[in-house]
Amino acid sequence: MTLASDAPLKPPAFNYPVDSEGKALHIRPWSFSGVHQISLHLAWISFFTSFLATFAPAALATVIRDDLTGITKVQLGNAGIAAITGAIMGRVCMGTFCDMVGPRLAVASVLLITAPAVFCMSMVENFSGFAAERFFIGCSLCMFVVCQAWTGGMFNVNIVGTANAITAGWGNMGGGGSRGRGWVLALTYGYSFGVELTVDNIIVSYLFDQFGLSLTVAGALGSVFGLMNLFSRASGGLISDIMARYYGMRGRLWALYIMQTLSGVFCLAMAYVDYSLGATIVIMVIFSIFCQQACGAHYGIVPFVSRRSYGVVTGMVGAGGNVGSAVTQALFFAGAAPWQLLLTPQDGLRWMGVMTLGITLALFTIHFPMWGSMLSGPTKGATEEDYYLKEWSAEEVSAGLHNPSMKFANESKSQRGFKYRVPAGSPADRPIEVEAKPNVVA
User: Fold this and answer.
1) Which of 31, 100, 264, 424 has the greatest number of C-beta atoms within 10 Å?
2) How many Å apart are CA 159 and CA 95, to the nearest integer?
């Protein structure tokens, strides 16, 4: 007799195409029907809420420094660092939490826990309270990790870069071994998303002070940088997916490198046009497009670093963005050391651009055995199944716990690029049946 529990599980039926993992094969951002599309919208709306709450005080910095007696420019900068520090802690923890309970419960938990901190911002009377509030509200930026894990689990590998970029980009409008690969991406993300966070924190004050604008005008112009996320981050993910169709993972890496390098170039350029408001705004818009495209392109690569620990890697890379921002602000925009007090905002932009150009070179060190790196092809004989199987022990393989990873490995063969891609249906394109062996762990 066959028990019902012994029957093979089948993915639920949908009225649109899904892959072998039950992930949607198409993105319909205009649609609110179907679990995949609804999850897409809930993810970006949740992130939008947390981003808006975190950076609203930065947009009002010129008012806050007059309203809170005794607060200095350095203290305002340190409060911004406190917000980023809260985000670092939240993102590191959220990756593991998301793997444990799933993204939906993680979203609800973050919103419920951080909402009281947003309400209490209206009661702040001094710098200590202001910094503490920014820290606790900043913790809500860990919503980004949940956002990426949620959409990454809902959409096929060929469109995951676009899906992740849409949810993160629309969310960001609120502000106007395998592990080695993860650490490199965390480092470089510190100078794409980290740069975006830094600009979000300083841009309104910079325009207000440099060009003598009213707070209303400075706020409106400064918000343009964040509002470019309406399309720029999504376009970064889309370009990453398009490059992958022709050049595989190597195309994704090159797309990211080019976008982030151009971001650094225009960050430098912005520092040299401080004599003209018009030129500053034009350069700022171009700068924001490449900066946010690089953010989206990062998360076209992250889902492939680890299948088993996707949430952890997402959290690690996301936290890297906040670390980059905290370090940059502490060094060039909010330091109290004698040499730092001599730095102008233009100096800060110059050094931020230089660091972006330098850190982005680390992308040349990323190598996937089955896909290669920016400068070299894949390792001979390496397969997707071998790469993702190494995350499982012999006992786990024997219990069948590795099966989702093997399905993902089969879908990920599309990342080989046309030069190394095998014809569909050929023996090399078929999933590999894995038996439990004591030497499956490298």
Assistant:
1) 264
2) 22
